[in-house]
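Researcher: Good morning. I'm working through a list of sequences from a screen, and I'd like to move beyond sequence-only analysis. For each chain I'm collecting a predicted structure so we can compare shapes side by side. This is the next one on the list. No need for commentary yet; just the structure.
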Amino acid sequence: MRYEEVDSETQSFIDNVKTQFPHLSSATIKSLFSNKKKLSGGKITLAWIQKTNDLTKLLSADNIITQGYDYIMFIDSNVWENIEDKDRERLIRHELCHCEVDLESNNPYKIKDHEITDFYSEIEFNKDDPRWTERLGEIALSVYDSDE
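Model: Good morning. Structure tokens for this chain:
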């Protein structure tokens, strides 16, 4: 199957990183592993997040989130298995930086694009490894090259 729900350990990890984003406390995020390589602009996509629409909101409803989720986060499972927790945190933080919430709007949950090739809020966090995305991209390529 192309997608599968993340395991409880991964979900706990994501929930812990989410606490660094107080504006997302009311947002619900469904987390899925993507089990196939996804390319965008010729590069492997390590993770991505999307806002749900009426259909995906309905389809994502479950016993816990009965109204459906606000966002769906996809994580490349092969990359996730081959990186350390610090890089996992970088990856999740980056995706959460795309989320914007305006509770006074009729449609409060939005996706924002990059401010630069990164986010200003991540520069300080990643100062010890500013080229982390390139490094993870190389890991992703080696993971997928070894599978072929």
